[in-house]
From TrEMBL:
Pfam families linked: AMP-binding
Highest rank taxon of the organism: Eukaryota
Gene Ontology cellular-component terms listed: endoplasmic reticulum; Golgi apparatus; lipid droplet; perinuclear region of cytoplasm; plasma membrane
Gene Ontology MF term list: long-chain fatty acid-CoA ligase activity; protein domain specific binding; protein kinase binding
Keywords (A to Z) from UniProt: Fatty acid metabolism, Ligase, Lipid metabolism, Membrane, Transmembrane, Transmembrane helix
Any GO BP annotation: very-low-density lipoprotein particle assembly
Organism: Crocodylus porosus
Statement: the UniProt record of this protein carries the keyword Transmembrane helix: yes
Domain AMP-dependent synthetase/ligase span(s) in chain numbering: 118-531
Enzyme Commission numbers on file: 6.2.1.3
Protein name: long-chain-fatty-acid--CoA ligase
Xref: PROSITE patterns: AMP_BINDING
Spans through the membrane: 12-33
Amino acid sequence: MKLKHTINPVLLHFINFIILLYSLITYIPWYILSGSRQAIAKSKQIKAKPVNNQPGNAYRSVNSVHCLASVLYPGCDTLDKVFKYAKTKFKDKTLLGTREVLKEEDEIQPSGKVFKKVILGKYTWLSYDDVYIKAVNFGNGLGILGQQPKSNIAIFCETRAEWMIAAQACFMFNYRLVTLYATLGGPAIVHGLNETEVNTIITSKDLMQTKLKEIVSQVPLLRHIITVDGKPTTWAEFPKGVIVHTMVSVQAMGAKADNINKQQARPVPSDIAVIMYTSGSTGVPKGVMISHCNLISGITGMAERIPHLGEKDIYIGYLPLAHVLELSAELVCLSHGCRIGYSSPQTLSDQSSKIKKGSKGDITVLKPTLMAAVPEIMDRIYKNVMNKVNAMSGFQRNLFILAYNYKMDQISKGYTTPLCDSLIFHKVRMLLGGRIRILLCGGAPLSAVTQRFMNICFCCPVGQGYGLTESSGAGTITDVWDYTTGRVGAPLVCCEIKLMNWEEGGYYNTDKPYPRGEILIGGQNVTMGYYKNDARTKKDFFVDKDGQRWLHTGDIGEFHADGCLKIIDRKKDLVKLQAGEYVSLGKVEAALKNLPLVDNICAYASSFHSYVIVFVVPNQKELIELARKKGFKGTWEEICNSPEVEKEVLKVLAEAARTANLEKFEIPVKIRLSPDPWTPETGLVTDAFKLKRKELTIHYQADIDRMYEKRVN
């Protein structure tokens, strides 16, 4: 979608002439030297093809048609071997970085709320050897505390270097690492800890004194709490029999001991490495059993799609390590000599909530070359930048839009635009440190508008991926030279994908022009199933006659002629309306979520009714301006609760829906504006900011009942 501008025709022709002249002068040497010719050729190549030409047969990457890849390095079939190989290969190279905290202070807001602000210093680094020694000592120390091989141990902690060190210790000593999101609610945490029967939990001092304090009495088997930072304190109601340690003290114990049972403890490829609890977007979190060979297969496939991955790369880690996307990305980096600098959503940029005004965020200091993000974060960046563009002077805005549209045309043909990149988009690119060469995106579908914006303004390809916790995060990733939008790429070299007919939704693998159906992923990356949930495991997983393990994803896709996959629907998001039409809730949300007026949106429909309703978290600045134009005054809550304002917002949504060519029955006719944002802490979205439809439905049940009582035209 091109941006609109209003610019003087004479000036427009002059600028176009300058750009054309520059392009003609630089085109020939650039075309020969830049590798663009090869990139254009690669973008047109077939990327995956079916094993044979029968409908419903699996597609494989052209690089693994005859044999799926399963290991990164010969003989490294478990995660501890991968790390040991990397430690030997990269020796004293730095691996994990953490910024030092120079100052913390409380900042009182005009509303009276107190926000914690920090001033951070430079990154301090641990080498591969440092991390290896710390992991060995920690694993030994856990053994002294009574941890046995193949027994479960939980980590409930924010993303940080100590998380990865603890994980590597567990991989070495064959402890099953149970991962829980730091933002999970109390009942979900209790469920995970009790279901896995852990007696030791690794956490942070902050989480121990907040979330764990509230639920520790409900975990009767718990005996040890290990904090990764500082000296912990207990409280008056602290349960008897539970001992609190620091990570440093456990490592000190381990350093004094021999390598307890190290030979007997070594894992084999089929041993469980991680029991990863999902974010619970559709109910109670499920523990996915991921073996060593599952994870190695997955990261083997991912690494193949990142060209020139190596020691020059710096990755910024800030997404939850309890999410398979972040864990896989960091394991890919660790195994290839890349540095990993840690951050958090609260300290990521100069404008982040915990960064003291005037000081630098993590991304500005680290200047990473690789970054992973979920679509919600990319959508926020897009809206923030476009808000700043709209606030520019007329000349600046029109120049930006002209360059934007020019570059859009060029990259759609496979070309780059060095002049625009250096003169127009340099400042935008600096928002992510200025050196990003590949952005990895996963966790949910990314809109074409946002993807194209990231391509243009951050001057790098977006590797949009598709995978699930149940497939070790692996499935597909777009090639870096593929600048098409709306697709998730070809199957990775570690797996194969086929489409199964879904008659209820009307999707068939014999459809023309593209085969369509439910996406099934097969390969060694497909996990072992759900912990203590055989019924659900049998429902979602199966083994075919050739011994290949398959996963039913519940997502609907179509394969294009070049072998790339496009996600077009989700079985759980498809609702049959009263009149018999099927409405895709995800499709409605995708058409409306990039409106400046919308910060977040959830569509809802019922088979007992004939129309769609939506819940919207509005952008405060945009909604207040809309209310002002319509002559409505009041507090933020009063504006959001105003029926008049609701009608005005509904008009904006309806117009956007028609522009996006939604069917009449897909256009929302009722709305509820939420004055409060949906965050993982509210329990209404996951850590990857995917909607929790069940929780949102419960939260807004009274509004649903009201909106379906009587339709107002």
